[in-house]
Amino acid sequence: MTVLAPPRIVHLDPVDHGLVDPTGGSRDLDTMLQRARAAEADGAALVVVPAGPRDVPAGHHWPSTAQALAVLLATTSVRVAVGVHPVAWEPAALARFARSAAGLAGDRLVLEVFGPDAGAFAIAVGRHGAGTVVVGDAGLHALV
What we know:
By secondary structure, this protein is α/β, with parallel strands linked by helices. It is built from five helices and five strands, in the order E-H-E-H-E-H-E-H-E-H.
């Protein structure tokens, strides 16, 4: 008898600075991409790029959406969830990002909305044709 393990969700470590920041820079992004590829090869159903601190780009911060796009382009089949906070985005702009990501890497992106008014924001983003949008970790677990 074969026993199948439940689908796994792998949470990647955050990259809290930009690519040109000498305190970690591209080495941290490379590590993130290696972990995502390894999770995909190991059969993970979903990898999660965590939201940054309120995900508002400041200074050398590299937004989680850019990190998610890098993970999407570095993998071929695993779904990639990215955490976003409503205070950092307009629904139409986030939906445009999601549609662009889908055009580049297929329909593997999941937008995971956190924070105040997450439910209403997720609905607004969905109205703009953003693909898969969930609210918080419970929404992710419902996907796998």
